[in-house]
Write a structure and sequence with these properties.
The chain is built from eight helices and 20 strands. 38% of the residues are buried. The structure holds flavin-adenine dinucleotide. The site of flavin-adenine dinucleotide has 33 residues, from strand 3, helix 3, strand 8, strand 12 and strand 13.
Length: 338
């Protein structure tokens, strides 16, 4: 267990933007976490964090950032031959995925290259290239900080939706700390090719391995997303808006090339936030050190390395206002502001 006081969050987040936090407390196991939760000396509020790849600290944080250091991985084969992998919340998702691919296990490969930890994967229901964590998560072991109870939550109980889970409900915010997550995998070849570029590349191919999918996904990601090692960002800054189908259809009549994806029940449609930002003329837009990423307009980057959170928020507000003015659609951020 390690506790540091008065820290700078820049190295703890992928935006690499300076801001102070009163404390960072790191724990290896549930006993250490319980000790931390019981300590009246730790500044409040308590906020679980992983790699900070979806966070923007807009002001000094008065409380304690809690981070799991549990990077363990256990593979389990049950009596029915089903394979699952149980991983510690502090493990990097991509390290886990690489290990699963190495063992020829299918399920997580399309999520390759997404920054962040196993713990956050269920909070965020991370998704990319036609797969979401929800498709493979079996359950998660969590501590309820309100009661001190240790619970196993099933996938159903976590109420996954688009970049959503029950952990994000107002009453649950920062209440549960994820300790471990179990994913159900399979050694039976099962490439998921619903994403067009993957279908075009691999459709009809035999003898695919999880690594074929992983390598292709990483190649696509690297061609359009900035690497947090070199350019600060939190990935997609905005969610794709989901709006009433009648409003979406009317909009499409005016912009025939606008992507529109009707939801399963047909009552709503998901629009592409990237397309809206691009066609609102915001390519290359900047405020101070923050800028819209030239290869993917959904991403706001710390372009100069010296951007402040105020620069990012100024650009965010300008994007929201410009898109609303041009298309009548309100974007909302995917990145959590603290
Ligand atoms: C370049 C780039 C590309 C990205 N691409 C994608 C993408 O393709 N798809 C996608 O879905 N996301 C993407 N993201 C966003 C980000 O990687 C995910 O949201 C990721 O799950 C965040 O993980 P983290 O460990 O950094 O969590 P943090 O950013 O540290 O935290 C995110 C949330 O999870 C909570 N949390 C973290 N750990 C725990 C825990 N142990 N217990 C309880 N709560 C916890 C935090 O309180 C916070 O609310 C991208 C980000 C970047 C920088």
């Amino acid at each position: 267990m390690q506790i540091d006081l008065n820290i700078d969050v820049a190295p703890l987040t992928t935006f690499h933007i300076s801001q102070s936090a009163a404390a960072l407390a790191e724990f290896n196991n549930v006993a250490e976490l319980q000790q931390l939760l019981a300590s009246a000396a730790l500044p409040r509020p308590l906020k679980p964090v992983g790699e900070g790849s979806n966070l923007l600290f807009t002001e000094p944080f008065p409380g304690t950032l809690l981070r799991s250091l549990d990077c363990s991985i256990n593979f389990v084969v049950d009596k029915g031959g089903h394979i699952s992998v149980e991983a510690g919340a502090g493990l990097s998702m991509d390290t886990l995925i690489e290990e699963c691919c190495r063992r020829g296990l299918w399920g997580l490969e399309n999520l390759s290259g997404i920054p962040g930890t196993v713990g956050a994967s269920v909070v965020q229901n991370v998704g990319a290239y036609g797969v979401e964590a929800a498709d493979v998560v079996r359950d998660a072991l969590v501590v309820d900080t309100a009661t001190g109870e240790i619970l196993t939550l099933t996938a159903d109980e976590m109420q996954f939706g688009y970049r959503h889970s029950m952990f994000k409900l107002t009453d649950n915010r920062n209440r549960y700390i994820v300790l471990r997550v179990t994913y159900a995998l399979t050694s039976t070849p099962s490439p998921r090719l619903s994403y067009r570029a993957l279908a075009d590349r691999f459709g009809g191919c035999d003898n695919l391995t999880p690594f074929d999918l992983r390598d292709a996904v990483i190649e696509m990601r690297e061609s359009k997303l900035p690497s947090p090692c070199f350019i600060g960002s939190a990935g997609s800054f905005f969610k794709n808006p989901v709006i009433d189908i009648a409003v979406a259809s009317e909009l499409k009549a005016g912009y025939p090339d606008m992507p529109l994806y009707p939801t399963a029940d047909g009552s709503q449609a998901k629009l592409s936030a990237a397309w809206l930002i691009d066609h609102a003329g915001l390519k290359g837009a900047a405020e101070g050190g923050a800028a819209v990423w030239h290869k993917q307009p959904l991403v706001i980057v710390n372009a100069t390395g010296q951007a402040t959170a105020a620069d990012v928020v100024a650009l965010e507000k300008r994007i929201i206002a410009t898109v609303a003015q041009k298309f009548g659609v309100t974007l909302s951020p995917e990145v959590e502001h603290l």
